[in-house]
Amino acid sequence: MNDWSGGVVTDRAQTVLAKNPGIMTLDGTNTWVLREQGAARSVVVDPGPLDETHLAAVAEAAGSVALIVLTHWHHDHTEGAERFAAMTNAPVRALDSALCRDAGPLTDGEIIDVDGLIVEVIATPGHTTDSICLLLDAEKSLLSGDTILGRGTTVITHPDGVLGPYLESMRTLRALIGTDRVDRILPAHGPVIEDPAGVIDFYISHREERLDQVRAALEAGDQTPDEVVTRVYANVDNVLWPAARLSVEAQLDYLRTE
Fold first, then answer.
1. How far apart are CA 157 and CA 127, in angstroms?
2. Residues 145, 70: contact at Cβ < 8 Å?
3. Helices (H), 94-183
4. What is the mean pLDDT of residues 48-77?
5. Which is more confident, 241 or 93?
6. What residues pair up with 1 in beta bridges, in sequence order?
7. Residue range 8-16: average pLDDT?
8. What are the CA-CA distances from residue 70 to residues 47, 48, 101, 226 (Å)?
9. 76, 130, 146, 222: which one is catalytic?
10. Most buried among 24, 106, 127, 211, by the most CB within 10 A?
11. Residue 227's Cα: distance from chain center in Å?
């Protein structure tokens, strides 16, 4: 496994990696700084944890900040948002109005234009209800938040996370890639993905395989989420079982509606 340390990725995007590595955050939270070439102002995506050293590093990389965008509500993305907004005097926007500050909520399909930097908002519910991705058409880059990770697969954080909408979001992104608008994925955790179609195809097949395994566990007599986790994730380090349990709960909920 290669270590990921962030840095400049494209002509318009660089990431400042937060020092909050862990099972769920991988190498840490990627705070993305987006700026059109030659422009003075930037957009900061997911300020990350409330860590003064990290926020100062983001501020240094970002310069004048026109807007702060949150891909979803999880604290490793949003905890530092209020402090960073105060540091930069920039508004905060998210799909959920409760996360916004000095600005209205984002809408699916909205086009953001900051000094020529064009970003399209794509609602991708599933990991959480309020999850979004951001598309930089000019360089065919997709900021995926936690909808797609740079390594491994995403947890569906039931009950806020829901599997049905997540699978639909995957199909939406796969179709987008099919129109030749995405060459790379810039995730909120882990390294840049240079094979977006392959990774999304894997995500979809992985979810379908897990659903088949959960169906088999139910047919074998397992009834509770913990029983299903013990059977389906037997070959997975049990330190990951609490996260797996969230996904299993989402899978069980999904299967009840089939």
1. 6
2. no
3. 163-178
4. 98
5. 93
6. none
7. 97
8. 8, 9, 11, 32
9. 76
10. 127
11. 29
Q: In what order do the strands lie in the sheet with 111-114?
A: 111-114, 117-123, 132-136, 141-145, 184-187
Active site residue 76: yes
Enclosing H/E stretch for 42: strand 41-45
Burial per residue of 50-71, b for 16 or more beta-carbon CB atoms within 10 angstroms, e otherwise: ebeebbebbbebbeebbbbbbb
Long-range pairs, 203-206, Cβ under 8 A, ≥24: 203/148, 203/153, 203/154, 203/170, 204/167, 204/170, 204/171, 204/174, 206/153
- Tens-digit pLDDT profile for residues 67-115: 999 999 999 999 999 999 999 999 999 999 999 999 999 999 999 999 9
Q: Give just the sign of the alpha carbon dihedral 234, 163, 212, 151.
A: negative
Strand ordering across the sheet containing 41-45? 7-8, 13-17, 30-34, 41-45, 64-69, 92-93
What number is the average pLDDT over the span 146-155?
94
Cα–Cα distance list, 106 to 67, 72, 79, 210 (Å)? 12, 11, 19, 33
Largest CA distance in the chain: 62
**In this structure, are residues 124 and 178 in contact, taking their beta carbons and an 8 Å threshold?**
no
Q: What is the C-alpha to C-alpha distance for residues 139 and 9, in angstroms, rounded to an integer? A: 11
User: Given the structure tokens 């003064």, which residue do they identify?
Assistant: 52
Alpha-carbon dihedral sign for residues 158, 160, 165, 171: negative
Residues 176-222 pLDDT 10s = 999 999 999 999 999 999 999 999 999 999 999 989 998 988 888 87
